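[step 3/7] inverse_fold.run input=structure_tokens len=165
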């Protein structure tokens, strides 16, 4: 079976990578899709997000990273995928994610598989990572080591010059 795991990944967090690793163990192939919401501005370009994800997913031979600006169900069809994977950090995500799953089922006939986040990653979000990095606060516990420097540089913080916890 082939799955698509989509998100903005701006930037990818340890929670995202955990969901990717677990999906890679469950499915024959996982397509990680860098998507964007219409009208939303991102700190990182789609190319930057694609490159960061490629660096942090290189260990899995059955994971491929793509970028797409259209509807997720259209990407799922083009990829010949069977399901959409979504991560849930906690109870607050359930209502929104259930609405998305229903919409994807209605307009694309695609089912969604939910993977719950490991407790140690449940409070991490890309927004929190960006806010911490902008102020030079430590982010190494929140994002993969391979991209810490990239994130700090986006805020003009020299890697290694961040404030210590």
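[step 3/7] decode complete -> sequence:
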């Amino acid at each position: 079976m082939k799955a698509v795991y989509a998100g903005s990944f701006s930037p990818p967090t340890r929670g995202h990578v955990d969901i990717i690793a677990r999906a890679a163990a469950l499915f024959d192939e996982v397509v990680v899709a860098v998507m964007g919401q219409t009208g939303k501005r991102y700190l990182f370009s789609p190319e930057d997000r694609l490159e960061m994800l490629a660096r942090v997913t290189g260990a899995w031979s059955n994971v491929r990273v793509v970028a797409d600006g259209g509807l997720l169900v259209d990407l799922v069809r083009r990829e010949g995928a069977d399901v959409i994977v979504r991560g849930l950090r906690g109870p607050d995500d359930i209502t929104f994610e259930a609405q998305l799953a229903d919409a994807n089922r209605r307009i694309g006939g695609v089912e969604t598989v939910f993977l719950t986040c490991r407790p140690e990653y449940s409070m991490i979000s890309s927004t929190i990572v960006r806010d911490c990095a902008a102020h030079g606060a430590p982010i190494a516990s929140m994002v993969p080591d391979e991209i810490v420097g990239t994130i700090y540089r986006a805020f003009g913080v020299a890697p290694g010059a961040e404030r210590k916890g």
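[step 4/7] annotate
Residues 6 and 33 are 4 Å apart (CA to CA).
Residues 2-125 form a domain with the Rossmann fold fold (CATH 3.40.50.620).
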